[in-house]
């Protein structure tokens, strides 16, 4: 008996919300509210294109040429993005994750990340997806260092929120007061820059037009609960994304290079515990000691 390329499909439902999480990478393949897609999706028999809905562990974004030093030792990761000569988006997004718990409105998957030449550390990972009829989807990722040495760690995720129409006519609100310039290989160049007076300033929300963005934001404004919010508003409906305080960085991508049918139809909003190339720079990198646990959450709702 055959099964989809992305493995088992775990559907959860609460009120008007419906989501599907895949065995492959514990990825978020779809999320709908009243039948309207809140994220860009892909077929169950199609590997996630352009990292749609994937979890990015133990680092988000890129590591320049896959090289880094940690605790006095030099390491070489596999170069998984040859076009830019980088290692990208971690080690677990194509791996099978095991079902740990399943209920009508929530599902938990786990994965044991064993050591490799480029990352000789041992982590137990857990991804909890839960739906609430009022609050939408919450995703919580937990990493526990079950190995014998301190591990460099970061995580992120890669959903593309959508309102079912092209980004150009949508109003986009991004809470960051600084953005990170990058070079032509998408590696940060210099410190974060103030968004004030630049096209990257979307703090008050504005129609995006034809602006292209593929940059990390920081200095995120937060509400009384410590959450930072991105809002995407179309002519008929809106989608909102939040990230908690364990994520001081937010990559925003206007989906200019995704497969043609989805190009600029959704906004990549990537919560990150550290910026691009953090394994090399050490900026906001988590030093996960043996026995230590790290947890972070984000979520999506109709607005």
Automatic annotation (TrEMBL):
Domain of life: Bacteria
Matches recorded under InterPro entries: Aldose_1/G6P_1-epimerase, Gal_mutarotase_sf_dom, GH-type_carb-bd, YihR-like
The protein, known as: Aldose 1-epimerase family protein
């Amino acid at each position: 008996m055959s099964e989809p390329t992305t493995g088992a499909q775990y559907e959860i439902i609460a009120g008007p919300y419906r989501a599907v999480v895949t065995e492959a990478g514990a990825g978020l393949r779809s999320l709908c509210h009243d039948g309207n897609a809140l994220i860009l999706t892909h077929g169950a028999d199609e590997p996630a294109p352009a990292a749609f809905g994937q979890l990015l562990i133990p680092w988000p974004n890129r590591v320049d040429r896959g090289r880094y030093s940690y605790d006095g030792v030099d390491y070489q990761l596999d170069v998984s993005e040859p076009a830019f000569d980088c290692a990208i988006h971690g080690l677990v997004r194509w791996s099978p994750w095991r079902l740990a718990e399943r209920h009508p409105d929530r599902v938990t998957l786990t994965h044991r990340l064993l050591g490799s030449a480029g990352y000789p550390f041992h982590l137990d990972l857990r991804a909890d997806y839960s739906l609430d009829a009022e609050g939408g989807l919450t995703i919580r990722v937990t990493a526990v260092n079950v190995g014998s040495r301190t591990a460099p760690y970061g995580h992120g995720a890669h959903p593309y929120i959508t309102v079912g129409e092209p980004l150009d006519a949508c109003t986009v609100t991004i809470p960051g007061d600084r953005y990170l310039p990058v070079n032509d290989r998408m590696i940060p160049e210099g410190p974060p820059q103030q968004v004030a007076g630049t096209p990257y300033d979307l703090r008050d929300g504005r129609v995006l037009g034809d602006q292209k963005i593929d940059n990390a934001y920081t200095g995120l404004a937060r509400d009384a609960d410590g959450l930072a919010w991105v809002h995407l508003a179309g002519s008929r409906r809106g989608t909102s994304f939040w990230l908690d305080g364990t994520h001081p960085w937010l990559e925003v991508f206007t989906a200019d290079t995704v497969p043609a049918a989805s190009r600029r139809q959704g906004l990549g909003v990537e919560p990150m515990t550290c910026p691009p190339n953090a394994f090399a720079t050490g900026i906001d990198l988590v030093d996960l000691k043996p026995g230590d646990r790290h947890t972070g959450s984000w979520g999506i709702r109709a607005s």
